[in-house]
Amino acid sequence: MLEAVGFDLDGTLLVVDRDRETLLHAACDRVGAPRLSRAAYLRTHRARQDGADREAVFAALLADRGVDGVDAAALADAYDALITEATAPLAGADRLVTGLRGRYGVGLLTDGPVVTQRRKVARAGWTDLFDAVVVTGALPAPKPDDRAFTALCDALGTTPEATAYVGDAPEADIAGAAAAGFHAVQVLYEGGPEPHPDATATVERSRLVERLPALLDGLE
Asked: Which CATH superfamily is domain 4-16+88-217 in?
């Protein structure tokens, strides 16, 4: 019997209406920094899965590039402002989670520095929305490491076989959840990745609020 549901945050419940690399380049342009690649940003971001925030990530990136005269804090503020402008909660996400909490324990498992991710949750007005929020910045490794998924189970007081995980990233969310023994539900969207073979089920992001409760019924 299904006892709990975990959600990814970025790309699943929080949706950005512009390409992330475009936003990163715009932030660099705003403060006079050389344009940094999204791939380099993600590598550095994932290497700093601790209490660090975007300022520390940008400081490391600028140092690696040998860039002087650019304030990492200003770059972080510019990127944060642009991301905030471009990001909105998926319509009806709070209603979906509230409804599911009547039947399941509902948690959030998100990658990234703790300060950054918890700030996103607060900005969405979701501080008290979930039964548990796990940010992998406080853990030894991010998704798809099974320790991340184990931490979610521990926080919700459930087991992998009794838990569904809903996310959009094929490897981090779907392959990771499936390998950890979860029911992996992949969120699909136009222009996004193809369904992963490890997905237990798939659902279009535009229909997530409407269809997920019945889909979870089918996993009972």
From this structure: HAD superfamily/HAD-like (3.40.50.1000)
Helix, coil or strand: residue 33: coil
- Is residue 209 within 8 Å of 90, Cβ to Cβ? yes
CA–CA dist 6, 163 (Å, integer): 7
Residues paired with residue 109 on neighbouring β-strands, in sequence order: 134
Decide if 149 contacts 109 (C-beta within 8 A): yes
CA-to-CA dists, residue 84 to 42, 53, 78, 135, 146, angstroms: 18, 15, 10, 19, 30
Q: What is the pTM of this model?
A: 0.84
Could you state, in order of their start, the residue ranges of all structural domains in the chain?
4-16+88-217, 20-86
Concatenated DSSP letters of 91-107: TTHHHHHHHHTTTSEEE
Query: 118-127 long-range contacts, Cβ below 8 Å, gap at least 24?
Result: 120/9, 120/10, 120/14, 120/87, 121/9, 123/84, 124/13, 124/14, 124/89, 125/89, 125/94, 126/89, 126/94, 126/97
> In this predicted model, what pLDDT tens digit does every residue of 44-98 receive, in sequence order?
877 765 556 788 889 999 999 999 999 999 999 999 899 889 999 999 999 999 9
Q: Do 105 and 157 form a contact (C-beta atoms < 8 A)?
A: yes
Measured distance CA(24)–CA(168) in Å, rounded = 21
CA R_g for the chain: 17
